[in-house]
Amino acid sequence: MNGPDPVRNPGKGLAYALAGNLALTIGFICAKISLTAFDPVTFSLVWTATATILTLGYLFLRDGWRKLRLPRELWLRTIAMGAATGAGMIWGWSGLKRLDPSLAAFFGRFETLLIILMGGLFLSERFQRREAAPVALMVAGGFLSATGGGGRVSLGILLILLAGLATAFQHLLAKGGLDRISPRTMLAYRNGLAFLVVLLWSLSSRLDFQVPAGCWLATIIGAGFAPFLGFLLVFHSYRHWELSRTGVILNVQPLLVIPASFLVFGTLPGRLALAGGLAILAGSFWLARIHQQVEKQDKAGK
């Protein structure tokens, strides 16, 4: 059967989300290493190609090609998810190339806000007045982190926010389709379609594959951890509990990136950037918590 596990298990949801967050963080650091030499478009092409090969290989070994069959009603949703994934990767990696990885991770947490806003637009979820305070805290933290960064940092932040918008859209589309197809099938289409989008994008770019062997290795390892293993685990978590709960776990990523960035690159965010980043993180947790309470109230009222 290609449908979901009939039993929702919050314990499994937590375990999958935690493991997925760790894999995504490892991939994030590997991507920053690779982007010291790769340009974002060439990197995105190699990254998505590697992830697609790994995902299709895993799907074939586990299920055979029969699991690639996609219900007709999911065609448009899946194509949109692939397009959002491809565009989000190019924007996100372009932003990461310009920013300290810790700062990029902090601004990536605006994804929580964007998921909730999109839930209001596409899923008719209500935006509560009490949610305005954590949103204001996140915006204030964003301004504080960006202070004194200059044009390069400002452009990097804008690209990270655009990537967050695309990623939020991707998560909503994936969550809505996992009641019909397995996480492995969803992942295969996510990575494969993203590769096609990046390939089309690359036709108007000048690709450069002449980079050190270490950057190639970091790219291949990172693609194995983030777009393959990381998202496979995150998609599995969606089958056991709510999207917002996984979002709370993913919010921890900056706290993993800071020590990893120090160990690998010997860098730490400045005081203003750190203070602003922590404000973004606190606002993101606060907002996710309020949203969970609203969901419980809505379920109780039904």
From TrEMBL:
InterPro entries: Diverse_Substrate_Transporter (IPR051258), EamA_dom (IPR000620), EmrE-like (IPR037185)
Matches recorded under SUPFAM superfamilies: Multidrug resistance efflux transporter EmrE
Membrane-protein topology: Multi-pass membrane protein
Pfam family, one: EamA
Transmembrane among keywords: yes
Compartment(s) of residence: Cell membrane
Residue ranges crossing the lipid bilayer per the database entry: 14-35, 41-62, 74-94, 106-124, 131-149, 155-174, 186-204, 216-235, 247-266, 272-290
This protein's UniProt keywords: Cell membrane, Membrane, Transmembrane, Transmembrane helix
GO CC terms in record: plasma membrane
Domain EamA: 12-145, 155-287
The protein's name: EamA-like transporter family protein
Native source organism of the sequence: candidate division TA06 bacterium ADurb.Bin417
